[in-house]
Amino acid sequence: MSRKNLPLLREITIESIAAEGKAVAHVDGQVVFVPYCVPGDVADLQVTRKKHSFMEARVERVVKPSDKRCEAVCKHYGVCGGCKWQILPYSEQLRWKQQQVTDNLVRIGKVELPEIEPILGSEAVYGYRNKLEFTFADHKWLTAEQMREKVPFEPGLGFHIPNCFDKVLDIEECHLMPEVNNRLRNRVRTYAIAEGMTFYNEHTHEGMLRTLIVRMNDAGEVMVVVVFGEDMNEKSRGLMAMIQSEFEEVVSLWYCVNKKMNDTIGDQELVLYAGKDHLIETMEELRFKIRPKSFYQTNTRQALRLYEVAREFAGLKGKETVYDLYTGTGTIAQFVARQARQVIGIEYVEDAIEDARLNAQMNGIDNVRFFAGDMKDILTREFISEQGQPDVVITDPPRAGMHEDVVKVLLEAAPKRIVYVSCNPATQARDVNLLAADYAVRRVQPVDMFPQTQHVENVVLMERENA
Ligand SMILES: C[S@@+](CC[C@H](N)C(=O)[O-])C[C@H]1O[C@@H](n2cnc3c(N)ncnc32)[C@H](O)[C@@H]1O
User: Fold this and answer.
1) How many whole angstroms from 53 Cα to the centroid of ligand 1?
2) How much is the pLDDT for 466?
3) How high does pLDDT run on average in the chain?
4) What would the mean pLDDT of 399-412 be, rounded to a whole number?
5) Is 37 a residue of the active site?
6) What are phi and psi of 97, to 5 degrees?
7) DSSP β-bridge partners for residue 64
8) pLDDT value at position 143?
9) Which residue among 302, 347, 371 is best mutated to probe the pocket of ligand 1, counting the most ligand atoms within 8 A of its Cβ?
């Protein structure tokens, strides 16, 4: 069916929220997924995709708003792909996140569950991120309305439209990070345009300016990385000098010349233009050095609460061997190290492991060992017999969850406890179901790291039965 012939569904009541944060309605027994509306809304929906078992639609008109709706804070709401849940009050966001965790554990996990503890909400519901990355584009993306108003094509600096590598929405305000991100980005854009600097084109791979990365620690110190697509010249040096002189909160200023086809800078050389080569983030008495390529949880304050839950669930008495799987820069490993005999951290990003070792040294922690490599290749029977049988395993895998082979090795290794931290309740529930062969779920604690979005973090404690 051509898109033109897709139906307009009139006065449909939105019922609930599904995975990926889309709202759900039913029409003639068929499920309809629709973004940017909330349960209780009555809306006219334009179908955009029709499949045998479901439809996708967009809101054409809200006929009667739900009493659960609130005003979006951001002027870019609905166009920028982030923060889809701004129109839901925070208490409702938390209620749906709790529900998402429960539904996944019930439907996919299919295990006996204890009472799920109330989700730990974030005190800051805006301004909580410590890192944002903006992209320069020689033609900013225009909405249909802007096209009708004949807004001219101009360079832009902002976020990618979801799933579109070449469409960049010019961002004037982002509320996810403290306000300095807005001053910086908007000043860089104005300066670059005034100086006639070219913005990158993803098709021709030409242009002087590619990306702008802004990071900030809890103390309010800022790190900036400007990524150029061409060798440094007078204009690019002028831009760096402007940031240095106008932004006193920028204590670490870097640039990178990236002439590759893609924007990732993990494999590129970074040059320190001015200031320190790192920021320091603190957590309890621990200090973590954040370099431009270092991974660090993006919501610093909620990361502390997440780690506190993981440590409490681990129930350490000081004699245990703990494995911290998918350790990143070793933050959880160091967070629990003083309560354990030894901690072993595994992670496949070598730079992250280098950071983990440096940070452990800086923190005077000498009972952690870090290994770099793919989990399924490193965590083998031989590795465990060399490094010691784990009493407790803390695992914090990426969204895809754990590889089947890793789950098998865990079952064989038979630690007393497994603390499973996850940013994807569906894959977590799948893995919990596999681990349930020998383990019972004792505690479940959701934590909200990402207010205004559908994402939720969840911690599950599993204990070995008949151990
Ligand atoms: C959700 S993060 C956890 C980070 C860390 N626990 C923390 O709190 O900062 C998942 C980590 O798993 C790593 N990772 C992803 N796939 C992996 C694999 N197959 N083997 C080892 N590590 C992997 C990623 O690089 C990332 O650092």
Assistant:
1) 35
2) 65
3) 94
4) 97
5) no
6) -70, -40
7) 42
8) 79
9) 347
Helix axes 425-435, 404-413, angle to 10 degrees: 40
Nearest CA, atom 13, ligand 1 = 326
Quickly list H helices, 224-367: 234-246, 300-314, 331-337, 350-362
Distance of CA 351 to the CA centre of its chain: 19
Architecture of domain 91-124+299-464: 3-Layer(aba) Sandwich (3.40)
Tens digits of per-residue pLDDT, 35-94?
A: 889 999 999 999 999 998 899 999 999 999 999 899 999 999 988 888 999 999 999 999
> At 397, is the secondary structure helix, strand, or coil?
coil
User: Boundaries of CATH 2.40.50.1070 in the chain?
Assistant: 131-283
CA pair distance 181, 134, nearest whole angstrom:
10
Distance in angstroms (rounded) separating the CA atoms of residues 80 and 164: 12
Q: Which of 281, 302, 326, 396 for a ligand 1 pocket mutation test, highest count of atoms within 8 Å of Cβ?
A: 326
> DSSP assignment of 118-174, as one string?
PPB--S-SSS--SEEEEEEESS----HHHHHTTPPP--EEEEEPTT-TT-EEE-S--
H or E element in which residue 411 lies = helix 404-413
Provide the greatest CA pair distance for the chain. Answer: 71
Determine the 3-state secondary structure of 467 from DSSP. Answer: coil
Q: With a 6 A CB cut-off, is 309 part of the ligand 1 pocket?
A: no
Residue 415 above 50 pLDDT? yes
Nearest-CA residue for atom 15 of ligand 1: 398
Protein residue with its CA nearest to atom 26 in ligand 1 = 328
Q: List Cβ neighbours of 122 (8 Å cut-off, separation of 6 or more).
A: 128, 299, 301, 302, 448, 449, 451
For residue 436, pLDDT over 50 is answered with yes
Cβ of residue 217 lying under 6 Å from some atom of ligand 1 = no
Confidence of residue 467 (pLDDT cuts 50, 70, 90): low
For domain 3-69, the CATH architecture is Beta Barrel (2.40)
Start and end residues for every CATH 2.40.50.140 domain found in the chain:
3-69
Among 97-106, 159-168, 433-442, 458-467, where is mean pLDDT lowest? 159-168
The answer to whether the beta carbons of residues 29 and 47 sit under 8 Å apart is no
Ligand 1 atom closest to residue 349's alpha carbon, by position in its atom list = 25
CATH topology of domain 131-283: OB fold (Dihydrolipoamide Acetyltransferase, E2P) (2.40.50)
